[in-house]
Write the structure tokens for this entry.
Amino acid sequence: MIDYGNAIRIRNAEASVADSTALLVANAETPAAALEAFRLANAQLVRNLGDQSSSGGYRINGAWIDGSNYRVTVSTTMKTMFVHLLPGMAKEMQVDAVTTVNRVAPKYQTAPPTFTQLSPDAADYNRIYVYCYSSDPKRQREPDLGRRGLTPIADNAGTRYDMSSAPTCEEGEAPSFLLRNVRDKRTSPSNWNDTGRQTYNYYTDTKIDNSTLVHTIQMKGSNMGTGEVIDVVKYPILETIICNTQRECTPRSAGGIIADRTNATASVATGSCEKGKFMYYGWEDRPGGDRDYNDIRLVVNCPIPERIADKKLRIVE
């Protein structure tokens, strides 16, 4: 009875630690916070049960079963005092506790960004639209390919657009931009809305990590008239740069950090687009062109996902 009593005592302590660890990890906003939960778990076990180093210490393992459920297993090996004296019984007993936590993710909205436009340099007609892009694969298989609320916001002909209809992006969506390029028609307003062989679409299809605020762009391009897919990997058409201030997002000749050059390799922003910072978008409107990435340019405030509903956690096992 003493051995089984010890096993129950150890398992109860492990269960308490498994519960708190699973809740902490499921609630964590960063990988560092999740790792800290495991460090705290081991410290709590040592404090309550001793270090158990002579029998291998504590094993604390955790994993996401799926996108909503996180499971923690805590185990240790207990040396028996009497039960092994019985025929067929081992001198050690493994004691485990398992907890699974269900996590309903917080909900976010992202307001449409504000922007300023830098002077363009192109003979083609270029128009920029904002839209909300869904990172949900199911939405991406729908007729709109996961792109919602396409709204024109700027062009290289000085047109003034009404931003009041720009969409607010819901959970799983991020503000993204479409460049619509009509070849050689900048001075021909009657052709600006052409949808034939001289018109090209380039979508940024952006995903924003709510924790790191890193923007991941999956650029896609095609000819509107023929449907031909444009290789925007071999021929990049977009440069992105994160700036600490709006002034930084201007050419070096104007005191900013944006290089004035041609035949260049496009910069790709990989850092956090944090609140108060700005993102520079500079397009090369013809793949394989002069690669100056200034045919149409926007400076956008970093769009920040705002939490509108907190996450919900509950122990289910």
Summary: The radius of gyration is 28 Å. Residues 2-104 form one domain.
